Amino acid sequence: MTADPRIQRSKDAVLGETQRLLAESGIGRVSIDEVSRRSGVAKTTIYRHWPSRSALLLEACSTMGEPLATPDTGSLRGDFTVLASQLAEHLRDANWAAVVPSIVDAAERDPALGELYTRLHDAMMAPFLSVAERGKKRGELPRGARPAEVVATVVGPLFYRRWFSREPLDSAFIKAVVSAAVGVGAGVVKR
Amino acid sequence: MTADPRIQRSKDAVLGETQRLLAESGIGRVSIDEVSRRSGVAKTTIYRHWPSRSALLLEACSTMGEPLATPDTGSLRGDFTVLASQLAEHLRDANWAAVVPSIVDAAERDPALGELYTRLHDAMMAPFLSVAERGKKRGELPRGARPAEVVATVVGPLFYRRWFSREPLDSAFIKAVVSAAVGVGAGVVKR
């Protein structure tokens, strides 16, 4: 809790400029120097709120996309359809989606950023994992099914289309992906 | 065809240094200047073989991983299992797998690199697409199935595990992914 509105204003300015820099140039070019220059907030003040560049990046990234709520439609297929549709919206959001590959790339070489990325990733995937676990308890997945694997079969194809094959994330695709994951098969979906 | 072995040697030196730079630092730091400095090949010579940085990057990236051959096991499940296992090997190859996110990230901001990336991607996916199309013709996928969507349900989860969730690409996972894609369902796979 920040009581002083001036403090809140400078924190907001720092986070806002960090997010703009991330979206413009990717994570590699975000420095405390540049954020300070653009936000007009002194470096000492920035370091008072965030002990490290990673801490600032973590907060800036984690507030860029609205977190997904865990739906409860009564069926695994329904829950996955809601979540996959919301994720597809996030993936169509130019700012957020342009930043993720730069974090993934930086995480390949920098263990501190790797940890930052893992925390972001786990938070983003938590609703998918909980609906998969609930679906398994309800008997909508066979006993041998591993929830984390089922989540990969829903989320993986969406990430693939946005960042790798650059094909559209339309509702027919989402339907096919969810069908494959819940055991109907990608091809069996009715159009 | 290069008749002169000295020319071939300098081309090989340039490609080799480009690949090493890519693996060390990602695509953002690969410049003709740096490649020239490290390979000892003059910039004018490099530009004689590759008219642009993108052309050099394209050739360096496309020769980093062995291209996948199109298998013919007699069934779509068999073909996908062969291809997914080979792709998983590529994804475990530290050099190649560390470079791809830097290309994807750069492609988000640079249309020329975006085109380069699309060509690499399409070449890598061609065997997946042809086995899916053949399987569909053989009736192993329903009439409504779209081969490109089925390919996304096989490849997407593998990319997801390597670059996003950073979980292991073991054979149980590959089996679950292929089962989901060919219509058996991710959970129904026998362990």
Q: What's this entry about, in short?
A:
Two copies of one chain form a homodimer. Chain A is mainly alpha-helical and 191 residues long. Chain A contains nine helices and no strands.
Q: CATH first level of the largest domain in chain A: which class? A: Mainly Alpha
* Mean of residue pLDDT values of chain A: 87
Q: Supply the number of structural domains of chain A.
A: 2
Rg of chain A is 19 Å
Low-confidence stretches of chain A: 185-191
Order of helices and strands of chain A: HHHHHHHHH
What is the overall number of helices of chain A? 9
**Greatest interface (CB-CB under 8 A), with counts per chain:** A-B, 53 and 53 residues
CATH superfamily of the largest domain in chain A: Tetracycline Repressor, domain 2
Can you offer a commentary on this structure?
Two copies of one chain form a homodimer. The termini of chain A are far apart. Chain A is 71% helix and 0% strand. By secondary structure, chain A is mostly helical. Chain A has nine helices and no strands. Chain A has two domains: 58 residues, Homeodomain-like (Arc Repressor Mutant, subunit A); 110 residues, Tetracycline Repressor, domain 2 (Orthogonal Bundle). In chain A, helix 1 crosses helix 4, helix 5 crosses helix 9 and helix 6 crosses helix 7. The first copy, chain A, is elongated, with a radius of gyration of 19 Å. At the A-B interface, helix 6, helix 7, helix 8 and helix 9 of A face helix 6, helix 7, helix 8 and helix 9 of B.
